[in-house]
Amino acid sequence: MLRPMFYNYTFLISSIAPRPIGSVSTISSDGKHNLAPFSYFQVVDHDPPVFVIGFSGRAERPKDTLRNLKETGECTFNIVSEDILEAVNVTSVDAPYGVSEWALSGLTKADSTTVKAPRVRESVVSIEGRLCEIVDYNTSRKPVGAHGALAVIEATRFWVAESAVDENAVMLS
Ligand SMILES: Cc1cc2nc3c(=O)[nH]c(=O)nc-3n(C[C@H](O)[C@H](O)[C@H](O)COP(=O)(O)O)c2cc1C
């Protein structure tokens, strides 16, 4: 018998901790903006900088973020600090495809330069990125039932709020 999904979920999110939250901004091929939080999010290399996002399984209705990444191959990651936690939480609502979570959250868009997806102006660190590949897990649950996917993304630009820059920090060359 399969262990119930909810037991795995509660066990894993409380034992694999802490995890960063990435607020991921994407745009669909017809220009609709989307923003959603992901805690299965990590940096996995630095040269070039590579990030991953884990999408939990909803094979019958993929998350809009995954769908947009497949369509346009671009996103921004916006690091979530305590002051924007509640607003970011609001963006996790299951809004119908094409309904922007930006307006619901009150977070504001800032232009990106290497991708079309906007950044979250309130984030201390934002990262623009392009999709390298999507990995559909070859698990025991495939092809039936829930299965997730991993998006592998290469960073194309970093943004850091001036207030977070330490003028006295020594750069290692
Ligand atoms: C704090 C937080 C972290 C989340 N992390 C993930 C995650 O890593 N992977 C995932 O598939 N869903 C995650 N979710 C759920 C998605 O944010 C949610 O399904 C959202 O509706 C997806 O939006 P989209 O369909 O616009 O992409 C998380 C939700 C919250 C509140």
TrEMBL record:
Keyword Flavoprotein appears in the UniProt entry: yes
Keyword Signal: no
Gene3D superfamilies in the record: Electron Transport, Fmn-binding Protein, Chain A (2.30.110.10)
Keywords: Flavoprotein, FMN
Molecular function (Gene Ontology), one example: FMN binding
Domain Flavin reductase like, first and last residues per copy: 14-167
Domain of life assignment: Eukaryota
A family per Pfam: Flavin_Reduct
Cofactor needs: FMN
Family: Belongs to the flavoredoxin family.
Protein name as it appears in the record: Flavin reductase like domain-containing protein
Organism, scientific name: Aureobasidium namibiae CBS 147.97
